[in-house]
Amino acid sequence: MNIVLLRSQDFIDPQRAILKDRRAEHVRRVLRAEPGDWLRVGLLGGARGQATITAISPTDVSLSLPQALDEPPPARHPWRLVLALPRPKMLRRVLRCCAELGVANVHLIHSYRVEKSYWQSPLLSPSALEQALLAGLERAGDTVAPQVTLHRRFRPFIEDELPVLAAGHPIYLAHPGSSRHLPTDDRQQATLVIGPEGGFIPFEVDLAETLGAIPCSLGLRVLSVDTAVNAALSRQLYT
Question: What values do phi and psi take at 157, rounded to 5?
């Protein structure tokens, strides 16, 4: 945990906050902090700064924030992600990666090779999605979680929503065997579309192409979905 994320309900006044959950346990047992030590903190969805530990008990950790949180969160990744819903356990890793890399928007979609049972997973509940994203934010020292949107029908999303999301920016479709390689470090806004294990079927690729998607390759190797997401998003380096 490289930042302690605070919520508005943690504050007892503008300059004091109390941690009572796993964050307090982490401060006590992992960081082994003591009163007088300072922590890097951030308001979830807001700015970052520092807090001083004023007291530690078996149940909570008290913090003092003598200065306003005024450091902005890190820059957002220039690409939004459209991802065919992966296996639930893999989804957790993918969302954590997206949060670590600063992706602003993640759209989870259905496709022919996505098992319908995946949509019934408890990992798609708001609380489970939030926990996966918070794990990434805490590692990256960020405060702004990706917005995750679910789309259970492939064709209506591709035809009606994808062009609106792209807003005139490029749409890159990760597709093995394409002659064109995914751009590297152009820092331009774009939409990245990644399919399920086994890839999109030809109909899905053709439909996306008719709406302006550009098939691109990540290389000669066949990658798992979580590796493909990480490899593709990491091509865009930013400061």
Answer: -65, -50
Encode the chain (239 residues) as per-residue pLDDT tens digits.
Answer: 899 999 999 999 989 999 999 999 999 999 999 999 999 999 999 999 999 999 999 999 999 998 889 999 999 999 999 999 999 989 999 999 999 999 999 999 999 999 999 999 999 999 999 999 999 999 999 999 999 999 999 999 999 999 999 988 999 999 887 878 888 767 789 999 999 988 899 999 999 999 999 999 888 888 899 999 998 998 876 54
**41, two tokens:** 């903190």
Q: How far apart are the first and last CA of the chain?
A: 21
Q: Which residues contact 112 (CB under 8 A, 6 or more apart)?
A: 154, 200, 201, 203, 204
Domain boundary among 35, 64, 93: 64
Q: Are 233 and 226 in contact (CB under 8 A)?
A: no
Residue 239 belongs to some domain of the structure: no
* Contact in structure between 175 and 164 (CB atoms under 8 Å): no
Answer yes or no: do 92 and 142 share one domain: yes
Q: Residue 58's domain spans which residues?
A: 4-64
**Structure tokens of 191?**
């939409």
Give the chain's length. 239
Residue with tokens 């954590």: 96
Residues 13 and 113 in one domain: no
What does the alpha-carbon distance between residue 133 and residue 114 come to, in Å, rounded to a whole number? 22
How many Å apart are CA 103 and CA 125, to the nearest integer? 20
Tell me which residue has tokens 């949060």.
Answer: 99
